[in-house]
Amino acid sequence: MKKIFFTLLSLVVASGAYAVTPANPTNVKWFDAGNESGQSRLTFTLPTVDVDGNELDPEMMGYRIYTDDDQIFTFTRSVYTNDDLWGNITDVYNYQWAEGSDIQGSVVYFYRTNAEGYERFFNTRIGIQAFYLNDNFGIGGVSEIVYDYLPQQTELPKPKNPHIDYWEEVWGPTSQELMFTIETDWDGNPVADDCTFEAMINGDDYTILDADKVTWSIYTDDDQLFVFTPEEFPEFSEPTTEIPFGYSGPYVQENTVYFSNRLATTATENPFFTWRIGIQVHYTVDGVKSSSDIMYLEVFPKMKPATDVTSTSFLADWSSPENNTQHAGFRGYDLYIIDKANPQDTLLIADIPALTKPGELGDEPIPGRTYLVENLTPGTTYQYYVVSKHNWGSQIISIPSNIEEVTLPGEAHGYELGDVNHDGKRSIGDVTALINYLLSGDENGICLICADVDENGSIKIGDVTALINLLLAR
């Protein structure tokens, strides 16, 4: 009841009520947690006296938060989980200060203010203003807004790109380690991208980074950020994506990450990466961050979507590990083509050689290649992947790619090409159905295989023209 009472009465503008002007807040300080998942905060000390030094009743006090151009910040119930909050508010009263909550008597926590996918709610400054309720419980006097400003550092030096020394499956596919190098000078200092070997030799100037402000992250496949979870890496008490420079723990030791038996790549149905693994270095000062490029190592072949698709063939195209020194002694590729409806009908195209190009020391292999798969069945959906084979001592190791899928155009499920509405014949109704699909995108009642009348692998206005030509040619 107290919450509702104060909230409603605070909206009343009291005429003639005596306004007490509180003194200004002090010790206003913003701390930015960077891109981690919490604990960015504004700390402050609220006044206990008015501008004349008279003692104030804390029960009659409150504050507002302001950002950038004196914009009043709104506390939303969905984000600020103090149970005393009632709806969305801009005025925080004394009874809403609760130890252990997001909003306390001398600190407000602003979660995920700078994390990826979230917009910062201010760019330049954040401030606080104290107010005092008047005799009718409306807001009476207010203090000045006291701001803390972000450091106006517009550009940080960019860390020099790291490189991956190797990815190794130490004891088979369930134990792996990643070794990498973060660039340093001869004294072991992390450096920016203006540092060159020649600069160190000649004694030229280059930028040395503060090692305490350098971190690194791991990325997988299509720039997916890897999370070190306590379940997989017990040395961390909470999930983290950035590891300090020089950190050494049981499974992360300076420049090596041991994935042990917990994060198998080829022996599980859900590997944590299927193509490549990379590393990026960060440099963060006062909440401002600069990062190197993400430097990748391709570990597994990367199968791409099919091209040049016809009713009986398609072009398979894949890349393959380019600079993984572990995968030496290349023996060739095995290409598997699987009828999705009948997995036992698998076509194996074995021992496809790598393409080569002339090099200074003879022919050099080109990572990956293409292969035209022919004599297939129209209207059939195929899954396909490639396996790269290599000598490893006395063994041959097989490195599989991801699986892609392609559906060939043509007669499918007993229907003709052009029978868009699935009624067993080609007619003007199929033209109408095809146009409706192109306008709405609604697949209900549509045979997509039959709708690709010109057999180019996509459904567009050209298929309408091709269908009309089929009808006129009868």
| Amino- and carboxy-terminal Cα gap | 81 Å
Characterize the overall form. flat
**What is the helix fraction of residues, given as a range?**
under 10%
Strand content: 25-35%
**Helical run tally:** 5
Radius of gyration equals 32 Å
Assign the CATH topology of the largest domain.
Answer: Immunoglobulin-like
Low-confidence stretches: 1-17, 261-268
Overall pLDDT confidence: 81
Beta-strand segment tally: 29
| CATH-level-2 architecture of the largest domain | Sandwich
Which class best fits the helix and strand makeup?
mainly beta
Account of the protein in words:
There is one protein chain. With 474 residues, the protein is mostly beta strands. The protein has four domains: 2-149, Immunoglobulin-like; 163-298, no CATH class; 327-407, Sandwich (Immunoglobulin-like), CATH 2.60.40; 428-472, no CATH class. 9% of the residues lie in helices and 32% in strands. It contains five helices and 29 strands. Strand 24 and strand 25 form a beta hairpin. Helix 3 (428-440) runs antiparallel to helix 5 (461-472). The chain starts with a helix and ends with a helix.
What attributes characterize this protein structure?
about 475 residues, mainly beta, Immunoglobulin-like, 6-stranded antiparallel beta sheet, 5 helices, flat, disordered N terminus
What is the element layout, followed by pairings?
Layout: H1 2-9, E1 26-31, E2 41-45, E3 61-67, E4 71-72, E5 92-93, E6 107-109, E7 125-133, E8 139-142, E9 146-149, E10 163-169, E11 176-181, H2 197-202, E12 214-220, E13 224-225, E14 243-244, E15 252-253, E16 256-260, E17 276-285, E18 288-291, E19 295-298, E20 302-303, E21 314-319, E22 330-339, E23 346-352, E24 355-359, E25 362-366, E26 369-373, E27 381-392, E28 395-400, E29 404-407, H3 428-440, H4 448-451, H5 461-472
Antiparallel strand pairs: 1-2, 2-6, 3-4, 3-5, 3-7, 7-8, 7-9, 10-11, 11-16, 12-13, 12-14, 12-17, 15-16, 17-18, 17-19, 20-21, 21-26, 22-23, 22-27, 24-25, 27-28, 27-29
Helix pairs in contact: 3-5
